[in-house]
TrEMBL record:
Localization annotation: Membrane
Annotated membrane topology: Multi-pass membrane protein
Gene Ontology CC terms: membrane
Record organism: Nocardioides marinus
InterPro entries assigned: PDZ_6, PDZ_sf, Pept_M50_Zn, Peptidase_M50
Record-annotated PDZ domain positions: 202-241
Protein name according to UniProt: Membrane-associated protease RseP (Regulator of RpoE activity)
UniProt entry keywords in alphabetical sequence: Hydrolase, Membrane, Metalloprotease, Protease, Transmembrane, Transmembrane helix, Zinc
Record SUPFAM superfamilies: PDZ domain-like (SSF50156)
GO molecular function: metalloendopeptidase activity
Length: 453
């Protein structure tokens, strides 16, 4: 039964991601067709074709590797300035002139070949339907449509969760003297947190002072303590000085003496920057509150998620490098490392098969997982790098600005921005993304992220 539930979770997650990919591509295809563009292919997946069907001028289908999708819009690349500007046809409608140029450099030949391959798809009557000829704002709408759909999916799922089940948040204990939840028995470097204490580890100051879970801290070096934020500052500022701690246990007032230890620890939200501060070795008691809300509440929550995702995108190469080191056994895989669709499937299977969650909690967890993937996919595709959608958006935006500036100055139209010149960069980025994708998939198979469901 557990194996079947695990498989069900994997299937539901992968199915939801495939649906998301399909909707992403519709976000490109529908506006492209509405604006008069010609879309010849709509596929979910890559690699060998599993199934396809021709409907009108568009071939719809599925491919074997469910790691993405694409729509083929004719005329993505304009002809080069020194190349033939348009194709011509004979009386039988056969193309007799192709966009071609003699090149000797590797990159120039690559660009020329890409243009030639692009224009082989152009048929008689397509001249006014080419993507590069669309107004800049239409290009932006077409290319932004896909990732925008992913963000809308994420918003809809989070809204459904917050409006029904609610958003469980943890809040530190009410205002007043802080209640201790856990007390560290030893001092472990921040980079090694999570491991067990050894005989060589020094006792934690809090444990040495006699503090235990459930104690209420009332004073620190004679200063009355009113909350956790104040206590943290007192401990950090104390460095390695002596500390006299007043606390209550079961209504009895007690006092403990120790000296705080200096440790390099994060003092803000980021764990990348460590500062040497005083360390006591206690964590606060928290209470869990379920908040419910509608679209405005969801939007506020997603603003915070977006900020976290942008930070994660900036750290992605470093995080993937960490996964690569975990694969070869150099270090353990971090709990916050990125995962591929394989890792997402494993998480979904674990959530579905655990007996620690009821049915509603499993449904919410799976919906949240799919929503999180969609938010990441949407924001990732907005990165201004070819071949991502954001690269095309950046190119069209620059074209719009350049043409608008020329009109204001009453200068000649500078023409279309030639995205083909950025193809070498696109190939480098695509290669890097392929390598990172392979590393994550291998990592999810060999050293999957370990977590408690």
């Amino acid at each position: 039964m557990t194996a079947l539930l695990y498989l069900l979770g994997v299937v539901l997650f992968v199915g939801a991601i495939l649906v998301s990919i399909g909707l992403h591509e519709l976000g490109h295809m529908i506006p492209a067709k509405r604006f008069g563009g010609k879309v010849t292919q709509y596929f979910i997946g890559f690699g060998p074709t599993v199934w396809s069907r021709q409907v009108g001028e568009t071939e719809y289908g599925l491919k074997a590797i469910p790691l993405g999708g694409y729509v083929k819009i004719v005329g993505m690349l304009p002809p080069g300035a020194t190349e033939l500007g348009e194709v011509t046809y004979d009386e039988h409608g056969e193309q007799v002139t192709r966009v071609r140029k003699s090149n000797t450099g590797m990159f120039t030949q690559l660009i020329s070949d890409a243009r030639a391959a692009e224009w082989e798809l152009v048929q008689p009557g397509d001249e006014d339907r080419l993507f590069y000829k669309m107004p800049s704002w239409k290009k932006i709408v077409v290319m932004a449509g896909g990732p925008s759909v992913n963000i809308i999916i994420a918003f809809a799922l989070f809204w459904g969760i917050y409006a029904t089940y609610g958003n469980v948040v943890d809040i530190e204990a009410e205002a007043g003297p802080p209640v201790i939840d856990t007390v560290s028995e030893c001092v472990i470097p921040f980079s090694e947190e999570g491991r067990a204490c050894t005989d060589s580890d020094p006792l934690a100051p809090a444990y040495e002072a006699g503090l235990r879970p459930g104690d209420v801290v009332t004073s620190f070096n004679g200063t009355p303590v009113t909350g956790w934020d104040q206590l943290r500052e007192l401990i950090r500022d104390n460095a390695d000085g002596d500390a006299v701690i007043g606390y209550e246990r079961d209504g009895t007032r007690l006092t403990g003496e120790t000296s705080t230890t200096v440790q390099a620890r994060p003092t803000g939200d980021s764990t990348e920057t460590l500062t040497e501060v005083g360390f006591l070795g206690v964590t606060p008691t928290v209470r869990y509150v379920t908040e419910t809300g509608g679209p405005l509440y969801t939007a506020r929550q997603m603003v915070g998620m977006t900020k976290d995702t942008v930070v994660a995108l900036g750290q992605l190469p470093v995080k993937v490098w960490g996964v690569a080191k975990a694969i070869v056994g150099v270090e353990e895989r971090a709990i916050d490392s990125p995962v591929s669709i394989v890792g997402g499937g494993r998480i979904a299977g674990t959530v579905s098969s655990t007996d620690q969650l009821d049915l509603s909690q499993k449904a919410v967890s799976l919906a949240g997982l799919v929503a999180g993937f969609n938010l990441f996919i949407g924001l990732f595709n907005f990165l201004p790098l070819l071949p991502l959608d954001g690269g095309h958006i950046a190119s069209a935006s620059w074209e719009w600005v350049r043409r608008g500036w020329a009109r204001l100055r009453r200068r000649p139209d500078p023409g279309y921005v030639d995205a083909a010149k950025l193809l070498p960069v696109a190939y480098v980025v695509a290669s890097a993304l392929l390598v990172m994708g392979v590393v994550l998939i291998v990592g999810d198979l060999v050293v999957p992220v370990q977590f408690d469901a």
